[in-house]
Amino acid sequence: MIEAFALSGALGGIILVILALRASYIMRRERGRRPGSPPGKGHHILRAEYFSGGGGGGEAREYTVPRDPQAYGRLFVPKTSEHKDK
């Protein structure tokens, strides 16, 4: 009985060490990288899919999003805004 606990504890410890090493490797590899895609001209096409799992069909939509951060931000400003860009 004690041997089973020792074996499962040892295996659990080994798994935790492997997971910690993997997380450390990924964090070091990703350090300094900016998330997302670089800004530029043109647009991204994002595809969003939804399936409720219920018997109905799934739904997929595509969205076009500008790569330019300023153009992307202007999408959220109402057309009737009093603020004027300088």
Could you characterize what this model shows?
- This protein has 86 residues and is α+β, with helices and mostly antiparallel strands.
- Helix content is 41%, strand content 19%.
- The protein contains two helices and two strands.
- A hairpin with an 8-residue loop joins strand 1 (43-50) and strand 2.
- The protein is elongated and about 75 Å long.
Count of extended strands:
2
User: Which spans have pLDDT < 50 for at least 5 consecutive residues?
Assistant: none
Strand content: 15-25%
Q: What is the straight-line distance between the termini?
A: 76 Å
**What series of H and E elements makes up the topology?**
HEEH
What kind of sheet is the major sheet?
2 strands, antiparallel
C-alpha Rg, in Å? 24 Å
Query: Which structural class matches the secondary elements?
Result: alpha+beta
